Amino acid sequence: xxxxxxxxxxxxxxxxxxxxxxxxxxxxxxxxxxxxxxxxxxxxxxxxxxxxxxxxxxxxxxxxxxxxxxxxxxxxxxxxxxxxxxxxxxxxxxxxxxxxxxxxxxxxxxxxxxxxxxxxxxxxxxxxxxxxxxxxxxxxxxxxxxxxxxxxxxxxxxxxxxxxxxxxxxxxxxxxxxxxxxxxxxxxxxxxxxxxxxxxxxxxxxxxxxxxxxxxxxxxxxxxxxxxxxxxxxxxxxxxxxxxxxxxxxxxxxxxxxxxxxxxxxxxxxxxxxxxxxxxxxxxxxxxxxxxxxxxxxxxxxxxxxxxxxxxxxxxxxxxxxxxxxxxxxxxxxxxxxxxxxxxxx
Length: 346
Prior knowledge:
Blueprint: H1 3-8, H2 14-17, H3 27-44, E1 49-54, H4 70-76, E2 85-87, H5 100-103, E3 110-117, E4 123-131, H6 139-180, H7 190-207, E5 211-218, H8 221-228, H9 230-246, E6 253-256, E7 261-267, H10 271-287, E8 290-292, E9 295-297, E10 301-307, H11 316-332, E11 338-340
Parallel strand pairs: 10-11
Antiparallel strand pairs: 1-4, 2-3, 3-4, 5-7, 5-10, 6-7, 8-9
């Protein structure tokens, strides 16, 4: 099978047939929110530079890039505080007065910080204020800085919840898809193909376009199982499913309708197109013998085609019934052939 045929052998995307979306907040969005909070902090504390920094081992949070501001570089050089602190004049502090950014350019004179903690109470970073002139920092200002840290913590928690929610959505979508796929053949299972049929029938009816079905049966499959065993039979089914899907358009759907029976849903296709597809399927399956235990086994299918062109008032169940009747007619005709359902056969 060619690479393009192998791609066509995969089911159409769930989004094409069944509803389901997912979304998540990106790292860039989180950085944007934190930048807004920093701007609020600068305005709130009247000219002080507000810096949000994270511990180096908190890799789930964004870091400032290499182009750090002077305030960021200074705050990043200090340990994150365990509690709120404020140094009104760094030149008067016994330790920080010797810091290069204090004793020299840019001559930072004021520093205040409050820790950031995650939902487990672990220290993850800090919100800091710096200024280039000494400042008084009373209790009301300390509480305001603690409130600012609380807003940052809340934003981090919201983003974390969004990330968890997105991960769950992705996992649920994967589980949902697996519940719709036949585990052996990797095509739609019976429940999924019937649901797709209902969706496509409604859509085709609203758009005023035809809908066609093909019911396909692998001839003499029981004999293959009885003679060569079920593992060999499974291999045959997998290969036949791939060949059938290679004959269809991406917007068409193929599902396992029964043990060795398949249902193809062709939205927008008239009965002539469906007949051509079914005949192509028959030829592709018959053209390549299947080798089992060194024995070349000639395969064939029988198919019945039904379309809303011939049965405009038929429900989906009735349309399947008409295709089934045509399939039985194909088997009665000697198998390895395609029969179109007509009103006189109903």
